[in-house]
Every structure is written in structure tokens, then in C-alpha cells.
Specification:
With 280 residues, the chain is mainly beta. It has four helices and 16 strands. It has two domains: 159 residues, Probable tRNA modification gtpase trme, domain 1 (Gyrase A, domain 2), CATH 3.30.1360.120; 104 residues, Elongation Factor Tu (Ef-tu), domain 3, CATH 2.40.30.
Length: 280
């Protein structure tokens, strides 16, 4: 069922998101060799969460990949797009692929009438992308109107879904498993090399995740994604996403249930980490 059936839900204009378009006969193979997900298996009616890593396995960006107009597109926060585009272009070499930004508007939906996670539905010039996570959400590519300046509402949806996106302030801080990409279909352990693959695979097969995603209550003054959470004696981790009352944080396992300070805000971490394959 398409989201247009629910007239009570207001689309959220995601002016802080953008698109990267990958066009050409080698585009799918090229992105398959760059991103953590199985892009080679991506069909026109499907979409996937994916990460883009540095050689040490830490994420430069997280993105949703899908087909539109016979080209692959990456939907991601605009703050990381220039770095992603610049780095992708470094690896093009002989690949027949053209990478460019795309100025199509992007809106979000936070209601139960969104398409299934991992789906891609084209309808009336709008591409609907069903997103994974703990609550129903969707991106509407090519959709205009709706709630303006919706970054706070959309971030609240990310927190509810327990899937924070990497932004400029958090780029280089987190491993894919710490943001649950492994449990939400964003990492393939059956594919060949991509930047950071050795680190990500070693953690999956031989290691134990030491920094996990957790919900937190927030009160007090301002804090932002990327801020260090300082405990009584040491740093506990970093904020991954936050609103005025709640946050997602990546913290050490020993920090679960503790309180800390980030910026001018006080955070109380929940006692249980959010589910990830590497922590079970």
C-alpha cells in the first residue's frame, strides 16, 4: 500500500538530505565494491541501507541505495555528501560510471502506511523507499510540500527507529555494527572487498562489539550529535542522534545504565543495548 492512502500523516520536508546519482554501465558493480551492502543484488523494486567506510572500518556515511530512472541513487544527509562524492570519485579509475549530485526534493513519512522496509515503489513520479528500523518510516523522492524545517521531527523518527544516520559531526566515529547496520540489512558478509571490509568482517567472525547503540533520556541544556558523553571518571561514548528529550548514543558496554554529561545536557543511558548481531 502506498503512503498516499493515509491523509492524516504530514510529509516532512528533508531539506537537510540530498541525493548522489550513479549512472553508467559499471555503476552497480562500482558501488558494490565501495559500500558495505550487497549492491550487486539490488533490483529495481528493492532498496537497501548501506555504509561507506574508511580503511579502518569507521563510517564516513550511511545511505539508502535504490534505483530511479535507470540509475542508482544514494539518499543521505547533505552534510556528508561532498566528502562521499569526493572519495567515490577517487576510485572510479576505468569504471564507466558518472557520479553527480541530484537536486530532487526529498520528504519523509512517519506512519503505518509506509511501504515495507527494503522496498522501492515508483508511483506518479515519486519514488517511495521503505526504511528499516524499529518503527515504520519512508523516504519520498521527488515529493514536494509538507512540514518545513522538519529535521527535528525526522531525527525523533530516527531515534524511535533506532537507526541514526551518520552526519558530518559523527563521520569517522562509529563502526557499522555499532549503528546496527549488520542487523538491518546494511552489511553483507558474503561479498568481496570494500573499504574497511577486513575490519568489519574480523569483528563479525572473531571479535566482540565493545561499543553499542543505546537509548538515553536527556534533560538540561544543548548538546549535539558527535558530542562526547563524559562520565564521572572517563568518556563513555558519543551521541549519535538527539532531540530535546531523547538521544541515541554509542557507548562502551560498561557504560550501560550510567549517567553522563554531553555539551550542557545530562544523559541517562538505558541499561540494555539495542539489538545487534555482534553483541549477542
Amino acid at each position: 500500500m502506498l503512503p498516499v492512502a493515509d491523509e492524516s500523516a504530514t510529509p516532512i520536508a528533508l531539506d537537510h538530505w540530498t541525493l548522489i546519482r550513479a549512472d553508467g554501465p559499471d555503476a552497480q558493480d562500482f558501488l558494490h565494491r565501495q559500500l558495505t551492502a550487497d549492491i550487486a543484488a539490488l533490483a529495481p523494486q528493492t532498496s537497501t541501507l548501506a555504509g561507506y567506510c574508511m580503511p579502518d572500518g569507521r563510517l564516513i556515511a550511511t545511505t539508502f541505495v535504490f534505483w530511479r530512472d535507470q540509475a542508482l541513487h544514494l539518499a543521505l544527509p547533505a552534510s556528508v555528501a561532498p566528502a562521499v562524492l569526493r572519495r567515490l570519485r577517487l576510485f572510479v579509475l576505468r569504471d564507466r560510471v558518472t557520479l553527480s549530485t541530484c537536486d530532487l526534493p526529498i520528504a519523509g513519512r512517519l506512519d503505518n502506511e509506509t511501504p515495507a522496509a527494503g522496498s522501492c515503489v515508483n508511483d506518479g513520479g515519486i519514488t517511495w523507499i521503505g526504511l528499516p528500523g524499529d518503527r515504520p518510516r519512508a523516504l519520498a523522492i521527488g515529493a514536494t510540500g509538507g512540514e518545513t524545517s522538519g529535521s527535528e521531527s525526522w531525527t525523533a523518527g530516527e531515534i524511535d527507529a533506532a537507526l541514526p544516520m551518520v552526519v558530518a559531526e559523527t563521520a569517522g566515529l562509529f563502526l557499522p555494527q555499532s549503528l546496527r547496520l549488520d542487523t538491518l540489512g546494511g552489511v553483507s558478509f558474503r561479498k568481496g572487498c570494500y573499504p574497511g571490509q577486513e575490519v568489519v568482517a574480523r569483528l563479525h567472525y572473531r571479535g566482540k562489539l565493545k561499543r553499542v547503540l543505546v537509548r538515553a533520556d536527556r534533560r538540561g541544556g544543548p548538546c549535539h550529535a558527535g558530542d562526547v558523553i563524559q562520565g564521572p571518571d572517563q568518556a563513555l561514548g558519543h551521541i549519535a542522534a538527539t532531540t530535546e528529550t531523547a538521544a541515541l548514543a554509542v557507548v562502551q558496554l560498561t557504560a550501560l545504565g550510567m549517567s553522563g554529561i554531553a555539551g550542557q545536557a545530562q544523559l541517562t543511558l538505558k541499561t540494555q543495548a539495542l539489538q545487534t548481531a555482534e553483541a549477542t
